[in-house]
Queue: 3 jobs
Job 1
Amino acid sequence: MSAYYYIGLDIHKRTISYCMKAIDGALIGQGKIEADRKSLDEWAKGLPGPWVGAMEATIFTGWVYDFLKPYAVKLKVAHPEMLKAITAAKKKNDRADAEKIADLLRVNLLPECHMLSEEIRELRRILRYRNHIVRMAVNMQNKVSGLLMEVGASYSKKRLHGKKYFRELLERVEDIPPSVKELLKLSRSSYEMFRSFQKRLVETLHTNLIHDRVERLMTIPGVGELTALTWVLEIGDSERFTSIRKAVSYCGLCSAQRESAGKEQRGPISKKRNKHLQTMLIEAAKLAPRWNEQLAILHERELKRGDRNRATLAVARKLVAYMLAVDKKQADFKLPAEMQAA
C-alpha cells in the first residue's frame, strides 16, 4: 500500500476537487476538474501511478464511483454524517474537504459506508421511483374526493375509484360546474396513468439477479413481493449485518441511545435510518399479523403492554429477524419444531 497514491475527491454538480498525497502525507497534487466523464477520463489517465481513492456519499457519487472504479486499485465511499463529525473545522472549502478525505484515507480512519453493486443500485432506483409514483396516485385519489366534497356531491367512498362507478357518477351528478367535471376527469386520467406505470415498473424488477432471493423471502407468511423486493434492494448483502440488532437499527426500528454517568435515556425512533426500508416494514407490519399466527400472537402481547404503534414496531422487528435469517441461511422459511407445536 505504501507505493500507492491516496486521493480524496470532493464532488459537486459541476466540479470535482481532488487532493493527492503519498503515504507519508506529502502533497503530490491538488486541483479542480469538470464533473463530466470526458474530464474524469483525461484526469484518471494522467495520474502518475496506482492510486486508492475516496469520496463522500452524495447524490452525485454513484456515477463517479462507477466511472472511476476501473482506474483505481480501490475506491471507497465515506459516510457523510460520520465524516462531518470527524473533520469538523472552522475553515471549510472544497479544497480543504478533499485534503481531509485524502488524509483520513491514508491513515485508514475513513468512516466507510457500504456501496451496492451498479446492477442493484439500478434496480433500487426503479423501485424507489415506483414508490414515488404510488404516492402521486394516492394524491390523485384524494384530490378526486376533495373536489366532490367541495361541490357537495354525494358518492360511495368504497366504489369511487372504480372505472364504471366513476363514469356513472359524472353522468348522474347535478349542479356541478363544468370546470369541476373537467378537473375530475383530469385527476382520474392521471390516477389511471400512475397506476399502470407503477405496475410496469414492478414488472421490470423481475430479474434473475434477485429472483431466487425474493422467492425465498416470500415463503415467510406476511411478507409480500414488494416487501421482499425492498429488503433485497435496500439491504444488499445481508452478511454485512453481524447481528439482528444492527439490522434493526439500520431499518430505523429502534430509538437512539443516550447514556452518561450510568443514566440511560431513550428518545423517539431514530432519524438515522434507511427511510425507504423503514416505511415499507412499518406498512408490512400492520398487515402481517393477519397472515402469520406467530406475529399475531406477538402483536396481541405487545398491544396489552403499550399502544398500537409499539406493537407494530415489535412486529416489524420480528419481520427483520425472519428475513435476515432466511437471507443468511439461503433457505425457505421454516419455524422451529417447538414453535410449530405451540
Job 2
Amino acid sequence: MYLSAACPIHRVDIFHQASNEGKTSCAERPMHTMPFQNRFALVSVSFSIAIAILLSAFPLATRAQEVPRYQVDPLWPLELPNNWIIGQVGGLAVDRQDHIWVLQRPASNTVDEIGASLTPPRSLCCVAAPPVLEFDTQGHLLGSWGGPGEGFDWPKSEHGIYVDKDGNVWIGGNGPTDRHVLKFKSDGHFLLQIGHPSSDPPNSLRTDILGRPAGIEVDSDAHEVYIADGYMNKRVIVFDSGTGAFKRLWGAYGNPPNDIDPGPYDPAAPRAQQFRNPVHCVHVSRDGLVYVCDRVNDRIQVFTKQGKFVKEFTLRPETLGMGSAWQFAFSTDERQKFLLVADGENNVIWTIRREDGAVEGHTGHNGRNAGQFHWLHQLVSDSRGDLYTGEVDTGKRLQKFVPVNRGKSQK
C-alpha cells in the first residue's frame, strides 16, 4: 500500500517541475495551455488518490493495535450429558481444530454434588464426569475419557493439560505424590510417562522425577516438552517430547534452582532470586521466547529457549495470598502484542502489553455471577481470540469470553 502511494507522490514532484517549466513557456507558446491543464488535472487526481490511500491506512493501523475487550457468553458450555457434573478445573487447552480440552478433578466433587451416584441415590443429580472433556466452540461435548489404567500412573490431583500439533494430549498432576506427566493420543491411548509417583522430598536438580508439575507446553518443531515444575520444585525443565529424555532445566533469572524456602512473599523486599511455589505456567511465543508464571511472586519471567533470562513483568506486585500470575494466553494477532493473564487472587483477567508488561485493562470481578470468578485458575484462547476460563476451590466452573471489538483488535 505504501509503495503504490509513493508513485502518485512522485508524480506530484514531477508536476512541480513541469509547472515551473510551463510558467516560463506559457506566454511564448499559448497553444500548450490545454495539454498543461490536462496534465494538471491528472496529477491532481493522482495526488487526491494518494492522500486518500494514506489516510485510510491510519484507522486500519489504529484498529490493529486496539486493546481487546471481552464480554461473557453465558450459554457456554451446554449442559453435560449423562447427568454429569464437573469438579475443579485443573487444566485447559485448545487444539488446532479449536476444540477446547478440559482436565477436571472428579475427586473434588462433594457428596451433595454427586448425590445421584451414591448408594442409595441421595438426590436427582449428579454423577462425576470423566477427567478429560473435549468441547467445540459452541459448547457441545465431543469426547471424554481418563482415569487410572494399565501401564501408567494416573495423577491423584489432575493439573495441567496441553494438546500438541500432532493431537497428542499431555496431562500432569499436583497431588502430594504426583511427580510425573503423561502423554496420550487424543482418544486416550497411552503413549509416554515422564517421571513416576514418589514421596521423596523436593529436589529441583533431579531429572528422573518431577515435583508436582503445574503446566505443560510442547515445542513440536523442536520435539521438546517444557514443564512448569511446579508445586514442589522451583524450576522449568525440558525433555524430549518423543523419548522423554532430559534436555535442560533452570530457575528464576536463569539461575540453577534450589529448594530453600524463601518464606512468605513481601512486596517491599528485594526481588526473589528463585521462583516461589508454584511455578504455575510455561508458554512459548511465536518469536521463540519462553514465558513462565511465578505465581506468588506476582511476576512473569521471560527466557530464551536455552534458559537465558531476558526480562520480567510484575503484575500488581502488592498482591499477597496466592499471587497474581496464575496463567495466561497470548493475543491472536501476528505479533502477539498482549498477554491475557488469569489472576486467581484478584479474580480478574489482566490485559498487559507483551513488550513491557504495562497493564492496559482487565476483565471480570470476584463473584459468582456470569463473567465473575472465584479462584480463576486456568485460561486459554482459541484462534478467533475467544477466551475460555476454569475455576477451582468451590468455583468449579467453565466460562467463555468473546471480544466485543473483534473486528478492530484481531489481525
Job 3
Amino acid sequence: MPCWPIFSARRSTSLATNTASFAPSRPAAPFLTPFPPVPVRSSLVTSSLFALALLSLSSGLPTAQASGGGVKITSYGHSALLIEGGGARVLLNPFRAVGCAAGLAEPRVSADVILASSRLKDEGASVASGRLLSTPGSYKVAGLQIEGVGVPHDRVEGRRFGLSTVWRWRQGGLDFAHLGGTAGAISPSDRVLLGRPDVLVIGVGGGAKVYTGEEAAAVVRELNPRRVIPVQYLRGGRAPANCDQGGMQPFLEALGSPTVRQAGTSLSLTPPLGESTVVEVMR
C-alpha cells in the first residue's frame, strides 16, 4: 500500500480532528512574494504536525480503499469531475451555471462524497447529492481516507476570496490531488505533504482565483504527477459575462513540450501509470 501524508492545518479553519485551529508561518513561493507570512501561534504544534506527516510517510494511513482496479473519470465541464472506482463515487466541484460556468449543464448527479474547493457557486454549489466536504480536515467516507488542507484562494492571502481547500485521497489504487480551485502558491511543506500524485486536477485558466498557465505549470513541475487533468479554463468561443478566465494554451506552452492526450468527456485510468507526465484534456 502506498504511503500517505497527513495534511497540516496551516491556514485552515479546522484541524484533522476539528478540535483546534492553527496558523503556522508560510514561506513565500516563487510566484507569490509580496505579502507577509501568517504569524505562528505555536511552534510546538507546528513541529508536532510536521512530525505526524513524516510518520505517515513511513507508516501509511489505515484505509480500505487502497486496492487497485483503476477509475473512470467523467467530465461535466468547468472543474466538475466524477471519479468512480474502488467502490466509491467522488464528485469534484459541482457548479451553478454562473460566471465562467454559464451555459453548462449543472452536474446534478449522486456521489458518495463531494469534494469542493470552496462554497463559491461555480465550484461548491449544492446541486448534487452526497456528503459535501469543503473545509480542511481529515475524513473517512465510503472507505476513502480523505485529507484537506486550506490554502489562499487568491493571490492576496485569501483577503478577497478566503480559503480554498486542496484535497488528497487514494481511490482505485491511484493517488489523487485536487487543486481545481485556487490561485494560492504551494509552499515547500505543501510539496512534502502532497507527495507525488498519480493524478493531479488543477485549474489553469487564470483570473482572480485560479492559477494562470505559468503558475499551474510551476506546480506541475514541483509535484511531478503522472497524469494532469486541467480544469477551469475557457473552452473556445467568447468568455461568458463576468468570466475572467482564459484558455489552456498558455499552460501547455509553459510546460514546454508535454505529452497531451485528448480524452473527451470520459477517461479510464488503471495503475500503474508509468513515470512520465501526461496531460489528459477533457471536454
